Amino acid sequence: MQATNSCPQRYVQDPPPRFRRRIDSPPVLRPKPSARPAAARFHPREWEDFGPLDGRSVLHLQCHNGVETIAFAQRGTARVTGLDFSEAGLAAARRNAEAAGVAVEFVAADVYDGVAALGGRTFDLVYTGRGSLMFLPDLGPGPRSWPRWWPPAAWPT
Fold first, then answer.
1. d(C-alpha 22, C-alpha 33), whole Å
2. CA-to-CA distance for 142 and 126, rounded, in angstroms?
3. Residue range(s) defining the domain that contains residue 87
């Protein structure tokens, strides 16, 4: 059985105008009085699933403006890296991390080239946001290489 993508290929290659405006406009985290704290970026069960983050390393795929990436840093993660192909998104992510006062590394690369872009580094937790996978037109060779980011001790036996 072949894996299929729920996002029509035409949306990836030629998004409708309303999505194109979103993609082309620079994303910015706008502070609002109702802005959710880091803990609220994820459901409490998700934080439980992640386990203790102190001293761990996290790789956030498709991080865009870094909001969830920053939440990991605010929760005490030792090393947080965000990866995204959008230079505009990463510029906003860097501004947002600076405004939040957290140290996060942001790397510009397509997720399919992520293993090479990160130079063989490993991470304790590899995360991609809810709904992000639908934007990947191919869940083949690139994503199949992602387990290389996990340290050997984390590999299933």
1. 23
2. 14
3. 52-129
Which parts of the chain fold into alpha helices (H)?
Answer: 9-13, 17-24, 44-50, 67-74, 87-100, 114-117, 141-144
Tens digits of pLDDT across the chain (157 residues): 344 444 444 444 555 565 555 555 555 555 443 355 666 778 888 888 888 999 999 999 999 999 999 999 999 899 999 999 999 999 999 999 999 999 999 999 988 888 889 998 989 998 988 767 666 666 666 666 666 666 655 555 4
Examine residue 135 and state whether it is found in any structural domain, yes or no: no
73 neighbors 103 (Cβ within 8 angstroms) = yes
